[in-house]
Amino acid sequence: MNRNVREVALYRTLLYMPSLIPMFAMSFIFIVFVNPQFGIVNQVLGLFGMPDTNLLGEPGTAKLVIILMAQLGAGNAALIYLAGLRNIPDTLYEAARIDGAGRLRQFTSITLPLLTPTILFNLITGVSGAMMVFTEAYIMTDGGPDNSTLFYMLYLYRNAFSYGQLGFASALAVLLFLFGMLLAGLIYWLSRRFVNYDVSAG
């Protein structure tokens, strides 16, 4: 993504484009893709002689489909990584090449250490997003089959608006907030051992 090649703009566009589609719309698109009767996924599997499969109707595959669909939002993280890469001075790579460092040595000694602040940011936001998965499970499976996709936020939503247990749902929300803060604090504390904020120290 950070190379000066002719196709790089196309690669960036293709990578980031799914992030522009609202998650509820992407969920409906995926429902069509994995439909057991006319979905494109089963049509492709049929070309290899595999039987039609209801991917959203099986506990194991339903969770896998939702997890894979969530990766379509990776364009946001990739854009932040690109910004981090562009913040690394080219002079560091030039000096490393003069010293005879290869691509692997440049990556381990320059790119990776100076990209650690960006990695930390994406790690915290990624963990936060993982704890708040809701739209995909609500639209695609509504927590099924057999509660295999009943993620925490959907469980909280059900207790609040389906069962009317507002007190219990509020307690779940507070627990989620406290756990999120604790986890973010732990990640930030551990990051002091590996995050490098000094650009000139690469």
From TrEMBL:
<feature type="transmembrane region" description="Helical">
    <location>
        <begin position="61"/>
        <end position="83"/>
    </location>
</feature>
<keyword id="KW-0472">Membrane</keyword>
<dbReference type="Pfam" id="PF00528">
    <property type="entry name" value="BPD_transp_1"/>
</dbReference>
<dbReference type="GO" id="GO:0055085">
    <property type="term" value="P:transmembrane transport"/>
</dbReference>
<dbReference type="GO" id="GO:0005886">
    <property type="term" value="C:plasma membrane"/>
</dbReference>
<dbReference type="InterPro" id="IPR051393">
    <property type="entry name" value="ABC_transporter_permease"/>
</dbReference>
<protein>
    <submittedName>
        <fullName>Sugar ABC transporter permease</fullName>
    </submittedName>
</protein>
<keyword id="KW-1003">Cell membrane</keyword>
<keyword id="KW-0813">Transport</keyword>
<dbReference type="InterPro" id="IPR035906">
    <property type="entry name" value="MetI-like_sf"/>
</dbReference>
<dbReference type="InterPro" id="IPR000515">
    <property type="entry name" value="MetI-like"/>
</dbReference>
<feature type="transmembrane region" description="Helical">
    <location>
        <begin position="20"/>
        <end position="41"/>
    </location>
</feature>
<feature type="domain" description="ABC transmembrane type-1">
    <location>
        <begin position="1"/>
        <end position="187"/>
    </location>
</feature>
<feature type="transmembrane region" description="Helical">
    <location>
        <begin position="119"/>
        <end position="140"/>
    </location>
</feature>
<feature type="transmembrane region" description="Helical">
    <location>
        <begin position="160"/>
        <end position="190"/>
    </location>
</feature>
<keyword id="KW-0812">Transmembrane</keyword>
<comment type="similarity">
    <text>Belongs to the binding-protein-dependent transport system permease family.</text>
</comment>
<keyword id="KW-1133">Transmembrane helix</keyword>
